[in-house]
């Protein structure tokens, strides 16, 4: 059978110098320790799972654990590293830029450098920073810089300060990440950022968190509470179709039933979440996804590759 030639929009980058900096600061990812990562290992995994090209984004916790000058320098070093991968394997790797959000001016500067000079495919932003979610007016200068460039923005979840108050032993990736994405989406929609910055193409990971599942409830919320922006039900569903959605860790029929009712069919793309979703998990995800009878061969080809080419035509 012909290769799926997938374009993976959810593929993480973990340079050794970044891993060292995170550990030195006493931080780490939600799974405790970073998995092994190298360009060669990444390419092996890509070949195994028929991934032609991967859009890399930095792993948790980003660069916000450092003070602003150090965060700016670390983001630049990570972006330079990603640019080297792109130059060495231009048909296999693209990159979402790391943005230092501790200082908004630094973020705007690195967006300009990454998109205008390094020619990256887009930027990666976390759903929230220090308790404030995307869509907050604090981030408007960043949104304006992205909107002016018609940028692709990969939204990655993280943990919120409130998570530390929860009396639960479960790691954040199990459910808190989904809540983080969900809150950012609602904030972007009902706070008006989607309307103010209409040219940004947002990719939501993990099938949009919980948003597809509770989209009907969301659509009637203005009818329940007059304090909300009085967006009609049709407008709510139209805004949800503005987003792109990846299927990382969300390949099953349970999720597909919700996602397919909300997302524009030409804005669903493939994601693996490697290496946090290790090779064993990725194999199970691909097996589940390929066995999904609800997706036609034509739809699967579009999710695997065709839809992403709209955003990343350099891989055509």
List keywords for this structure.
single chain, 316 residues, alpha/beta, eight-stranded parallel sheet, two-stranded antiparallel ribbon, 10 strands, 14% strand
How would you describe this protein?
This protein is of the alpha/beta class and 316 residues long. It has a single domain, classed as Metal-dependent hydrolases (TIM Barrel, Alpha-Beta Barrel). The protein contains 12 helices and 10 strands. Strand 5 and strand 6 form a beta hairpin. Helix 8 runs antiparallel to helix 9. It is globular, with a radius of gyration of 19 Å. The chain starts with 5 loop residues before the first strand and ends in a 5-residue tail after the last helix. The mean pLDDT is 95.
SSE class = alpha/beta
Widest sheet: strand ordering = 1-2-3-4-7-8-9-10
CATH class wording: Alpha Beta
Q: Span from first to last CA?
A: 20 Å
Would you kindly provide a brief summary of this structure?
This protein has helices at 16-24, 39-48, 68-88, 104-117, 140-148, 172-190, 193-196, 215-224, 233-240, 253-259, 279-290, 297-311; strands spanning 6-13, 51-58, 93-98, 122-126, 128-129, 132-133, 152-156, 201-204, 244-246, 268-269.
């Amino acid at each position: 059978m012909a290769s799926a030639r997938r374009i993976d929009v959810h593929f993480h980058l973990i340079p050794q110098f970044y891993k060292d900096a995170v550990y030195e600061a006493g931080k780490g990812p939600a799974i405790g320790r970073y998995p092994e990562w190298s360009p060669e290992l990444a390419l092996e995994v890509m070949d195994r799972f028929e991934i032609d090209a991967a859009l890399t984004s930095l792993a948790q916790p980003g660069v916000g654990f450092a003070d602003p000058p150090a965060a700016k320098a670390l983001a630049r070093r990570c972006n330079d590293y990603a640019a080297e991968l792109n130059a060495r394997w231009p048909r296999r790797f693209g990159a979402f830029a790391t943005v230092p959000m501790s200082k908004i001016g630094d973020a705007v500067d690195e967006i300009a450098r990454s998109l205008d000079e390094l020619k990256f495919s887009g930027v990666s932003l976390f759903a929230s920073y220090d308790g404030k979610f995307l869509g907050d007016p604090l981030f408007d200068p960043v949104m304006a810089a992205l909107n002016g460039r018609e940028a692709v923005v990969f939204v990655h979840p993280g943990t919120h300060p409130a998570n530390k108050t929860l009396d639960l032993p479960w790691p954040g990736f199990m459910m808190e990440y989904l809540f983080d994405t969900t809150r950012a989406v609602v904030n972007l929609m009902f706070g008006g950022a989607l309307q103010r910055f209409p040219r940004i193409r947002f990719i939501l990971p993990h099938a949009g968190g919980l948003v597809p599942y509770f989209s009907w409830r969301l659509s009637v919320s203005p009818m329940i509470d007059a304090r909300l922006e009085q967006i009609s039900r049709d407008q709510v569903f139209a805004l949800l179709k503005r987003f792109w959605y990846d299927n990382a860790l969300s390949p099953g029929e349970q999720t597909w039933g919700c996602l397919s009712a909300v997302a524009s069919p030409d804005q669903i793309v493939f994601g693996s979440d490697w290496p946090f979703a290790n090779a064993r998990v990725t194999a199970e995800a691909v097996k589940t996804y390929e066995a999904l009878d609800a997706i036609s061969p034509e739809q699967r080809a579009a999710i695997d590759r065709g839809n992403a080419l709209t955003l990343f035509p350099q891989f055509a």
